[in-house]
Design goal:
By secondary structure, this protein is α/β, with parallel strands linked by helices. It has helices at residues 3-18, 37-52, 72-81, 98-106, 121-125, 127-140, 157-161, 176-188, 200-212, 237-246, 281-289, 308-319, 325-341; strands spanning 58-65, 84-91, 111-113, 148-153, 169-170, 192-196, 218-220, 250-253, 262-263, 268-269, 274-275, 278-279, 294-295. Strand 9 (262-263) and strand 10 (268-269) form a beta hairpin. The termini are far apart.
Amino acid sequence: MNRRDFLLDTAGFACLLSAPMMPRAAFAQGKRPLARPEYVSAWRRRIRSLLDRGRLPIIDMEATYIEGTTDVSRMIDYMNEFDVAQIAFAPAFAPNGKPSLELHRKYPEYFIPTTNSGEFPRWWQGPAAFLASVREDLKSGDYVLMGEHEFRHYPSPEQVRAGLTFRDISIDLDGPAGQALFSLSEEFGVAFQIHYDIEDRLLAPLEAMLERYPNAKVIWCHLAMIRYPDRTQRYSPEYVGKLIGRFPGLHFDLAVPAPNNVYGPSGANDSTLYSGGQLAEGWKALMEKHPERFVSASDYRPPVETSYPDQIGRQRKLILDALSEPTRQLVAYGNAWRLITGTPWSN
């Protein structure tokens, strides 16, 4: 980034951070503006129809939508076959969240209006401009979730196989970009997602941000996905349990690779959520103790579209089926429902 771009971006963050903010006390009890009634009615109909047939609905809270590339018809077929009630599709390669909103309007029971996905150059090359666009989306009242934002991201497995390294991303979580994002969540009461690959050196900035913005609603993607074990000694169910105890707005999604997946650059099995091919007892105990903090997710993106059934199937068989019934209901759809609508699920 050259000096002129740096100055422009710094000025942009100054504008974002100085924008009028709702008092933090407005969200002191974890409340947020309610989703539009027509959204809620449509989503409720589809969830209710699955429950009435004895099925366990899933709300998929992490997915990337590329207009013209994502095969929407195929995805709807997958959703119907595998009892996925809704997908929060965050659009990529778009100037704002409009593609997600239009997708919801076309298929209101299936899709959740979500702001832009921060997985592409518009985010990491110009986060101030990116978040200015997100602010405009949120001001409209049309969006109920903010997409994934990469702060520390190693190249994805498919990019490693292709020899691509451009997604080795580092943005300071406690820098201007993180402060602006956390502030937006507090101001509008809307949850956001972060991709923050696990390293010991990155945990203190996260804790500092969670303390500074106690009413931000954060979904830390990919629970227990550790791609470089030698870079973290602190992360464990016990550590995550302490975070949950300290920070009421912190949630985790379960979009993780298969138990036998090896991350090529490190040679490590990156799904430390599992032990012996099953949900590890420590993580299972944590979910049972804090069932309101975990949400289902697929990490769908077009390059791995055909893997969607496997991802959802693993989530059901290896995670949801291992949990008690009350916890299973919350993790599959209840917690997501609360985050996107502002109210607990009720029959």
